[in-house]
Write a structure and sequence with these properties.
About 10% of the residues lie in helices and about 45% in strands. By secondary structure, it is mainly beta. The chain folds into two domains: about 90 residues, Immunoglobulin-like; about 90 residues, Sandwich (Immunoglobulin-like), CATH 2.60.40.10.
Length: about 230
């Protein structure tokens, strides 16, 4: 019987932790943008309201007559707090602003998680490989974004109307079509932005050429190769 209660207690503890984690709002913003944390409509009881970044106090709202707000040095030029103290706005966000924020209102603590990412620059397309056999070339193109602070990046290729959700793509093309403008576009996307680049000159992108030696290619039929 004792084992049953121990197992039940473990399940209840796990459910409590899961609910607590899901009750923490997660906000995602871009570098240079703004964010506003809003706590539930809770009575302050006439006491002070405390905002923290992690364990570091950043704002204190006092309701003494007259009421006043005190900001930490890092927050004083970029933070705005409502008169009730229940809303905090941070402007000109930086990467180091990411983390956990909390507000203590009359003993009630509400937490928020902030993720801050850089907006993507235009992606770059490079020719990873070109293999030609007779009048057909098999091209391998790679789409990438240089730099850091972007978080997870997803890539989508659009090649003559067909889409692939991947960073690199392979497709066949006639040699005679290498100089023709095509509809090849790569789109890069993260949590706060998306950018795309269009390839207009395949020969300029893949100026070199290797010749297949007894290769047997299997690929879907694409426009320009029939």
């Amino acid at each position: 019987m004792e084992g049953f209660w121990i197992q039940l207690l473990a399940v209840l503890t796990l459910l409590t932790l899961t609910c607590s984690a899901s009750d923490t709002p997660e906000l995602i913003r871009a570098v240079g943008g703004n964010v506003t944390f809003r706590s539930p409509d809770t009575d302050t009881g006439g006491n002070n309201v405390f905002w923290n970044f992690g364990n570091i106090p950043i704002v204190t709202v006092s309701f003494k007559d007259p009421s006043q707000s005190r900001f930490s040095k890092e927050c004083e030029t970029r933070c705005i707090v409502s008169k009730s103290g229940r809303a905090l706005r941070i402007t000109r966000l930086r990467m180091e602003d990411a983390g956990t924020y909390s507000v203590n209102i009359n003993g009630n603590i509400f937490t928020f998680t902030l993720q801050v990412y850089r907006e993507l620059p235009e992606p770059t397309v490079t020719c990873a490989a070109q293999d030609c056999l007779d009048s057909i070339c098999l091209l391998s193109l790679l789409c990438s974004v240089s730099g850091d602070g972007f978080g997870d990046i997803s890539y989508t290729w659009t090649v003559w109307g067909q889409q692939w959700e991947r960073q690199s793509v392979e497709f066949p093309v006639k040699k005679s079509s290498l100089d023709e403008p095509g509809l090849l576009m790569c789109t890069a996307q993260n949590a706060v932005s998306h950018r795309n680049v269009t390839v207009t000159n395949l020969r300029g992108l893949c100026p070199g050429e290797s010749r297949g030696q007894g290769m047997f290619w299997i690929f879907p039929q694409l426009p320009g190769t029939g």
